[in-house]
Amino acid sequence: MPERQDARNRAGEGEPAVGVAGGSLAMRLRSRLTSVVGVAAVVAAVVALGAVAPAAAYNLHTLAAIGSIDSISVEYDGQDDRPLLHIVGWAGDLNGPGSNGDAADPAGVELYTPGAGGSRTTVAWAEYGSFDYPRPDVARNYPVGPNQGFEVHTLAPRTGALNVCLRFYSFAAYPESALGLSCTTVNIPSQRPAFRPALTGAATAGSALTLGLSTPSGGSDRYSWWSQNVSGVPIPHNWWSQVPGATGTSFTTTLDLIGSYVRGMVTTVLPGVVIEQATDYLQVAPPLTTQDRVSASDRFATSVAASQKAYPDGTAGVPVAYIASGIEFPDALSAGAAAAKLHGTLLLTMPGALDTRVAAELVRLHPARIVVVGGTNALSDQVVADLKALPFATTVDRIAGSDRFAVSRAVVADAFGASVPDLFLVTGAAFPDALAAAAAAASTGRPVLLTDGRLGALDPATRAALSGWGTTHVTIAGGPVSVSPGIQSDLASAGIAVTRAAGGDRFGTAAALAAALPSRTAYFANGAAFPDALSTAVLAGAQPGPLLLTRGSCTPVASFTGLVGSGATRAVIVGGYAVQAGDVLDYSC
């Protein structure tokens, strides 16, 4: 539940709503220290309470308090008819260090109503988080630091005319407080006005919401939109912040607000009172119609689950199955695109022996050919022996090479033949950019070729392979750190057209690839690891779609941008709940 509503609930239980916990040392001491006179008495009081006093408490300075209440509005939250007071102002100590409200300088304000004989009734306190609002306008005029602002939301103690005054206090000063720095009278209606805010529209990112009033207010109305996650706007203690520039009756939710709550606010200026009314809040949803998940207990079982999803008909089987190590990523990157080209599957196993679950999937699909990708360091001879022992007739071949780059070239040549006019070129030194490229390649029937992207020039073996295949176009996946500008320049010099798909990070690169791959379906894998994402190539080969990356607990805005760019409305989450939270697509990050 949003923090603002929590504040109302706390206030309704008799506790002033200040947006922070009420059990801090300063809050426990404030009423006891107010009447204490003299340094010795202050020290004695702190020691008697069993607390460790700040160093400043033993070296008190003279209080020079300043401050003012800027405004008091009467506000109503959603369907709740109880009036709240929204009080904004500032205060500080000209002799203080200028860091109001922190542990080194415990200070705050009390908002109260004055009574007979100098008595006062507290309306609200502002300390710590609610007394930490930047007020550069005050800082320009007074040398008391940048955080003199306070903002509180608290239940109104009664209706009618209410005189609210400001007291500033500092436990590092003597006297400890200054009363009546500013007083303002607010007129609280005896009942909520008849005009109510109304919010219509869908809270799906990219959709428009409309704000209006149920009946005319008879005053001057201003409209604004608020959220708990406004890009570029700091939000103290998860409070609501106004969306910059959103001041009309219509508001289109954005991708960065996915998972956040939004609401509209109508501020009505009437004679003698300002009324603020907030609508009920809505949670912004991702622009998806359906969400599915392909997962299992571990990476090896997930590769089996992906194979079963891509090829549900075991009777029909597949012509070929590629077997790659689930411990390292390079060999599987090229193998996934090769499997998709040949309408086959890719399965992952441990290096020492064939995973029994993989063996069962091979029996179900009974491929006429099995390709073991990588040398004996990647997959042992025992894996080959286990494959040859499967209870159906099959051919088992191993594709190996001197390194991952040689293996990649051999896999491409084996699956795509002597002519490869177009391919994806990725670095073999890291997996993030290559994962999305493998899914894009599988979706479009192109190969993935690994190169050492750290080199300043195209290596001779890759140059010879491209020349022999008659390659005329290459899509580089990743920025210049992944695949150097020198490699791109050498490709161009060889007469090969080059397209670079890149973003600011792995999420942006995946999004850039997705934008060039229109599809109804998009796949989402954890961008911090490679195993589950490797299986996406099999899925993308059977049902084309881009691979976008998550952080496991939320999805970067860049990935949602790629989703919109591809036109996909169906999402398939690849990976179990240990690596991909159940609501990973419901929150942007």
Automatic annotation (TrEMBL):
Chain ranges passing through the membrane: 36-58
Superkingdom per UniProt: Bacteria
UniProt keyword annotations, A-Z: Membrane, Transmembrane, Transmembrane helix
InterPro entries referenced in this protein's UniProt entry, alphabetically: Bact_Sporulation_Assoc, Cell_wall-bd_2
Signal peptide: none
Protein name as annotated: Putative cell wall-binding protein
